[in-house]
Amino acid sequence: MTESSDIQWQAITPEGLKLVDQAVSRQYNETARKYGAEQRIYSRLPKQNSRFQLKSAADFLNSDPIKWRIKGVIPENGIAAIYGPSGSGKSFLVMDMAISIARGSDWFGYRVKPCSVVYVCLEGEAGLSVRLAAYRTTGTIPSAIDFVDQPLNLLSPKDLKDLGMSIKARGSTDGVVIIDTLNRAAPGMDENSSVDMGHAIHAAKLIQQGLGGLVLLVHHSGKDAAKGMRGHSSLYAALDAAIEVKRSGPDRVWSLAKAKDGEDGRSHAFILDVINLGSDEDGDPITSCVVRRVIGPSSIGKPLTHSQRIGMDAFMAAASANAGKGDARVYADVDQWRREFYSRSTGDNPDSKRRAFNRVREQLVAIGKLVVEDGVYRLPLGFPDLSD
């Protein structure tokens, strides 16, 4: 007869351990009930030492939803970016966002959860005081916003450490740190290099991990704005949220290019209101701008209709007669423009041509392709993109 000690037992499987554990648990609880003791789950399963913990779907379903800094736009924690071409107004938009976050006031109709803001201003720092003076005309500048106007190198461990120490000393952790711009904050970086961009992304993550909250990078569009932000695609992939800013003449629009658990593609129009702040020592006016939300759909990015293209072609032909007269503007009076339009119009009679001209004339002014003063039409300063 074979002794049990002579049998070569195989190692018990995880499934076998679970069966043993269930049996032991039942026996324990039966004994507990008999003596009136508290029942509990008794487990002899080995503890897991791996750092990788398996989670069920229920674990995630019961977890907290994403927390928003600006609801539906940027999260409380992570890395985000605002990008656009030079002159698009992105720095003014960032300032407007920063002050709204520090105030805790709605931003373009979105609910804001207030927090401290640290704005690292590396471009246009000389004009920071007048920008703040302009916003002071709209209300007090909140004490929850601070500024850094000294050079910062994200690729320098010492700079990262010093920035973090200053922000912690101010008690501004778990807030928003804005770096304007990424290019100025990483001097010498090859933005198209995956290695260099990887170092910059890592630096932004170190700031975020050390301070909590959100790091917001201000960046430029590439030469082809349709392709999005400048540099290696790893930056866009690393972002939790991205806002794109575009401009056409006086019209500007920001849109959600990427939203973590949000609805990307939403867009909002705005313009820059010029604020007169007095005069300098030479008597020249001091001005800056503040952002003003425009209610209603934006015309930016929408192609011109066939009639509108005829209208613009006619306007440019009429304006060419005024070129070289010592006026840098591109302009034509209404009669010049009307004659050119009529010569191109396919209307059946003068009345239909008149109606078509008046309709197109109003539309091109309404969408910001042209402006009018005393019957003279001209291109806006900063020439809009007529290739739409």
Automatic annotation (TrEMBL):
<dbReference type="Pfam" id="PF13481">
    <property type="entry name" value="AAA_25"/>
</dbReference>
<dbReference type="InterPro" id="IPR003593">
    <property type="entry name" value="AAA+_ATPase"/>
</dbReference>
<dbReference type="InterPro" id="IPR027417">
    <property type="entry name" value="P-loop_NTPase"/>
</dbReference>
<feature type="domain" description="AAA+ ATPase">
    <location>
        <begin position="76"/>
        <end position="249"/>
    </location>
</feature>
<protein>
    <recommendedName>
        <fullName>AAA+ ATPase domain-containing protein</fullName>
    </recommendedName>
</protein>
